[in-house]
Structure formats: C-alpha cells, structure tokens
Amino acid sequence: MLTIKPSEHTNVIEFELDGGLSREEFDLLAARIEQVISEYGEVRIIEVVKHVGAISPSALWADFKFAPKHLKDFSHVAIVADQKWIGWFSELVKPLMHAEIRNFGLDELDQARYWIRNVTANV
C-alpha cells in the first residue's frame, strides 16, 4: 500500500510504501509529482519503504514510461529503508538521475526529512 503524506506549499513529496503497489496508487503519486513539477519546476522526494510487496505489472509499466520523462525534474531524493538491496539499487540509478540521492535507515527518517527540506544546493 502506498501512502502519500499531505504537504502543501512545498516542492517536497513524502510517501510510504508498506506492501504492494497498484496502478491506481502509482497514478496518484505520478499526478502529485507532475503537479509539484508544474508548480515549482522540480521536486524533492522522501521515499519511505517499510515493506515491498506485489507490484502490479501495470504499475511497473506506468513507472517505466513515467521515469524517463522526469529524470531531470527530481533535485533531491531521500530513500528511507532498511532493505540493503534498495540502497544498492539506488546506487545503480544515481548516474542516470540529475538528483542528489541519499540513503537512510528507517530509524533515520527525521534526518532524511531535515536533509531534504534544508538542502540548498541544486545538483
């Protein structure tokens, strides 16, 4: 299940994945990201991953089409997860993204929030 945390008047989007991901959930997140990009020109992401469950094939396909269009629209990404493979994956995609990406453990969520909201340099 994907939960998008409420936020207004900011280019920061925080969301949490705890289980599976449906196409409808992905579409809601993608729409929110595009709204922020339209309003601010770029977006900062806090992605909290508690548990990864089944991801619908249509959500994967939608992400596959969405991501390349927005690689340069993410300025900073904080990935908050305890699964080591998520950190390894983020290291693999770093060269493809314009964003500064940092990994945090679940017990470091407050530090991730502080970093994403207070970093001033654009990459």
Structural account:
The protein has 123 residues and is α/β, with parallel strands linked by helices. It has a single domain (2-118), classed as Transcription Regulator spoIIAA (2-Layer Sandwich), CATH 3.30.750. Helices cover 41% and strands 32% of the residues. The chain contains 4 helices and 5 strands; from the N terminus they run E-E-H-E-H-E-H-E-H. The chain has a 5-stranded mixed sheet, sandwiched between helices. A hairpin with a 7-residue loop joins strand 1 and strand 2. Helix 1 packs parallel to helix 2. The N and C termini lie far apart (31 Å). The mean pLDDT is 91.
Adjacency order of strands in the biggest sheet:
1-2-3-4-5
Portion in strands: 25-35%
* Mean pLDDT rating: 91
CATH architecture: 2-Layer Sandwich
Taking all Cα atoms into account, the compactness measure Rg is 14 Å
Summarize the amount of helix as a percent range: 40-55%
Low-confidence stretches: none
Subunit organisation of the chains: single chain
Distance between the termini: 31 Å
CATH topology: Transcription Regulator spoIIAA
Give the biggest beta sheet: 5 strands, mixed
Number of domains: 1
| Category from helices, strands and their pairing | alpha/beta
